[in-house]
Amino acid sequence: MATLRQFEYLVTVVDTGSFTRAAELLHVTQPALSHQVRALEKAVGGPLLERLPRAVRPTPMGRAVLPHARAALADAERLRAAARQAAGLAGGELELATVYSVSLGILPPVLRAWRAAHPGVRIRLREFAHTEELRAAMAAGQADVAVGTPPADWEGPIRELGVEEFVLVLPAEDEDAGPAAHRVPLAGLAGRDWVHYAPGNGLADLVDAVCAEAGFRPRAAVRTEQTAAAPLLAAAGLGPALVPANIVPTGFDGLVRRPEPPVRRPLVAYTRTRPDALTAAFVELLARRACLLPDQVARMLSDDEAP
Predict the structure, then answer these.
(1) How far apart, in whole angstroms, are the C-alpha atoms of residue 162 and residue 159?
(2) CA 264: distance to chain centroid?
(3) By the 8 A CB rule, do 127 and 100 touch?
(4) Of the candidates 227, 297, 303, 226, which has an alpha carbon nearest to the alpha carbon of residue 255?
(5) Burial group, residue 290, by CB count within 10 angstroms (0-12, 13-18, 19+)
(6) Cα–Cα distance between 125 and 107 in angstroms, integer?
(7) Which of 239, 228, 226 has its CA nearest to residue 195?
(8) What is the reported pTM?
């Protein structure tokens, strides 16, 4: 099989018109150069160079092979340049995987800060409905870094980001809401119709689990596949919704309350192997800038936690 080094030898001999001059430029002996050219000719199945008394010129087969050899060398150089840029955080591409709710609530401000600091780095974002789908995709090599809940039995590096808090969203005049500092017992909402998530969405499993712990199974008034729709549907009066605090939009006109008992989940960033410089820089920024409880939601909840 032909190698890049053999292509380099062929191109240099053609460009210089001399084995002697090519050997000097390549810092190899002339016998070694000749041996590699013969090996290339054997690999492609015919002579590539015609050796004249005072020059060397490509044969018809050599002229056919030469553009491909130059293209292969150019591609290799572009690959090396891309790797150098990525290592220096000046360019390249980062493949990021996460679940829908994280891409909606946590990632936008982080990606905005990353873009400002590293405008030459492209981000490819892959989103999944369930944390198990995210873990499987990450294990299959579909991304450089994943952001979600801690993956089970993961052998690669894991960076803790913090604990995400969930809140109850209710219509503005809801009788079960109470004052802002009041925690709403989940068991007290057992008889209500809920804004629920579509089957297959990881948040559907979470809602079912926490309601089961409170002693009931939530009855769905509507199921949505769009995480962002849940607080809006709840504010519109379709029923209470349990949502990550960081997805509540600015200027939200519904009520936001803490559930009792509290609902929280840890979030992490994880990779398969020790991250390269580009991935490590992104994870570090993510750990610094991930906002798990936005200021506007904290104000809606009130800081008064007195019983």
Answers:
(1) 9
(2) 23
(3) yes
(4) 297
(5) buried
(6) 10
(7) 239
(8) 0.69
CB atoms within 10 A of CB 269: 23
Tell me the C-alpha distance between 130 and 142, whole Å.
15
pLDDT digits over 227-263, tens only?
Answer: 999 999 999 999 999 999 999 988 898 999 999 999 9
Alpha-carbon span 5 to 128, nearest angstrom: 43
The half-sphere exposure of 307 on its side-chain side, counting CA atoms within 13 A, is 0
Q: How far is CA 202 from CA 196, 227, 246, in A?
A: 11, 10, 16
Q: What is the CA radius of gyration of the chain?
A: 30
Per-residue pLDDT of 175-193, as tens digits, reads 877 776 678 999 999 999 9
pLDDT of 223 higher than 50: yes
Evaluate the omega torsion of the peptide bond into residue 157 and state whether it is cis, within 30 degrees of 0. no
Using alpha carbons, select from 209, 235, 213, 210 the residue that is nearest to residue 222: 235
